[in-house]
């Protein structure tokens, strides 16, 4: 029996004291909220704090779990050969604590945006839909299911 393999990832909708949202520009996907893969031995919270710091230079306090998204379609890496397993992503609220905006290999630009500007700068539909859910957070966690290439949103529900 082959056991399923999933990538676990985390992301955060991070606000500063002025209510602006932190966005990072990935060299491939464009603008998105900070986050990335959970490494072996890390908790979700540890991974998220590490990823945010690496991608943006900002230290954060993690808040509520806002959204869980499942990418149920297998994908192909940018090399056109290697496969990408399905992904389960946990999206949290966060507050900026300290640090200076810094770019990295994963973030060629880092900037604070007004809430009403965020969706307009996101190019990838799956990222836009995820962030849209998180911006509408009302205390209930959202569960979204999608696949990519082509992008299909299979459903959203509150859990």
UniProtKB/TrEMBL annotation:
<dbReference type="InterPro" id="IPR015797">
    <property type="entry name" value="NUDIX_hydrolase-like_dom_sf"/>
</dbReference>
<comment type="similarity">
    <text>Belongs to the Nudix hydrolase family.</text>
</comment>
<keyword id="KW-0460">Magnesium</keyword>
<keyword id="KW-0378">Hydrolase</keyword>
<dbReference type="InterPro" id="IPR020476">
    <property type="entry name" value="Nudix_hydrolase"/>
</dbReference>
<protein>
    <submittedName>
        <fullName>CTP pyrophosphohydrolase</fullName>
        <ecNumber>3.6.1.65</ecNumber>
    </submittedName>
</protein>
<dbReference type="InterPro" id="IPR020084">
    <property type="entry name" value="NUDIX_hydrolase_CS"/>
</dbReference>
<dbReference type="Pfam" id="PF00293">
    <property type="entry name" value="NUDIX"/>
</dbReference>
<dbReference type="GO" id="GO:0016787">
    <property type="term" value="F:hydrolase activity"/>
</dbReference>
<feature type="domain" description="Nudix hydrolase">
    <location>
        <begin position="4"/>
        <end position="136"/>
    </location>
</feature>
<dbReference type="InterPro" id="IPR000086">
    <property type="entry name" value="NUDIX_hydrolase_dom"/>
</dbReference>
């Amino acid at each position: 029996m082959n056991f399923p393999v999933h990538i676990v990832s985390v992301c955060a909708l991070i606000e500063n004291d002025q209510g602006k949202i932190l966005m990072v520009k990935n060299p491939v996907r464009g603008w998105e909220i900070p986050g990335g893969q959970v490494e072996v031995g890390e908790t979700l919270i540890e991974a998220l704090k590490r990823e945010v710091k690496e991608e943006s230079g900002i230290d954060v306090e993690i808040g509520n779990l806002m959204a869980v998204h499942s990418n149920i379609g297998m994908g192909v890496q940018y090399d056109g050969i290697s496969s990408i397993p399905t992904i389960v992503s946990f999206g949290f609220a966060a507050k900026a604590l300290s640090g200076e905006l810094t770019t990295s290999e994963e973030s060629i630009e880092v900037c604070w945006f007004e809430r009403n500007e965020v969706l307009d700068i996101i190019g990838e539909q799956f990222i836009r839909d995820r962030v849209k859910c998180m911006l509408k957070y009302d205390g209930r966690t959202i569960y979204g299911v999608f696949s990519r290439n082509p992008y299909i949103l299979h459903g959203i529900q509150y859990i």
